[in-house]
Amino acid sequence: MSQHLQNKVFISTRPKGASGELNSLLTDLGATLLEFPLIEIKALALTGEEEKTFLELEKFQWMVLTSSNGVSYFFEMLQKVKGNSKLPEELQIAVIGEKTKKTLEKFGYRAAFINPGSTAEDFSEPFARHIKTTGTKPKILLPLGNLARTVIQDHLSEWADCTRIDIYQTEMPEKMDPEVVDRIEKDKYDMIIFTSPSGIYNFLKLFPGLSTQKIRLACIGEITAHAARESGYHPLAVAQNSSSSGIVESILNYYISKNIKKT
């Protein structure tokens, strides 16, 4: 077992209950992970027009699902609106990333287009090339979170008719663990792990008096890292692979590199 993370304390800002795999990986390396959710995800109420869209899914040729949350909340809402989670047979599904693909399969469906990347930018160009070959302008449904950017619909606007529905919202939790707050304020941790820009922004709101130069953080993906830098933070580790194993590998590489420089 690598000794580089032995006895180190990490703080996860993922939503409540979403740090299980991360905890397991870090524990196996001798580290401790504290959960400190900085975002909470809740379903959004649908408008009458949006409910109608759920009842007319057969008019779409494609549905794009960008995250596991998107998959789960889509089928939750479909069940509420229709009374079942059955999709039209002709509706094809495109997903971003392996984790989204696996979540979709739990609901009994397989993706017709899987992008190995983890961002809207990674997805948009390959998917645009894919739908261009059909010779028609397909109708695409985009069930997203309220903070999701417009990258996909903007990129596909020339090649498809996109309908966006915001099905879940991201907000700051009402309660925070006072012990973890105390650790952060007293600098009794090794690194804080962020997985989204929302977490970065909420952290800044929660700790406005802490020096951004002294906060030690790791980020999943360049989008989160960019939000951190724009907010004045300097990520020590950035995982290109948006997964628990990806962020742990990046953190481990940081400490290995740091120890090499000391010798």
Automatic annotation (TrEMBL):
- Give the reaction(s) catalysed: hydroxymethylbilane = uroporphyrinogen III + H2O
User: What UniProt keywords are attached to this protein's entry?
Assistant: Lyase, Porphyrin biosynthesis
**GO MF annotations, alphabetized:** uroporphyrinogen-III synthase activity
**Pfam families recorded for this chain?**
HEM4 (PF02602)
Please give the InterPro entries that the UniProt record associates with this protein: 4pyrrol_syn_uPrphyn_synt_sf, 4pyrrol_synth_uPrphyn_synth, UROS/Hem4
The EC designation for this entry is 4.2.1.75
What class does this enzyme belong to in the EC scheme?
A: lyase
Keyword Transmembrane included in the entry's annotation: no
An annotated GO BP: uroporphyrinogen III biosynthetic process
Q: Where does the source fall among the domains of life?
A: Bacteria
Q: Give the Gene3D superfamilies listed for this entry.
A: 3.40.50.10090
The Tetrapyrrole biosynthesis uroporphyrinogen III synthase domain extends over 21-248
Q: In which pathway does it act?
A: Porphyrin-containing compound metabolism; protoporphyrin-IX biosynthesis; coproporphyrinogen-III from 5-aminolevulinate: step 3/4
- Role, per record: Catalyzes cyclization of the linear tetrapyrrole, hydroxymethylbilane, to the macrocyclic uroporphyrinogen III.
Family per record = Belongs to the uroporphyrinogen-III synthase family.
Q: What is the recorded name of this protein?
A: Uroporphyrinogen-III synthase
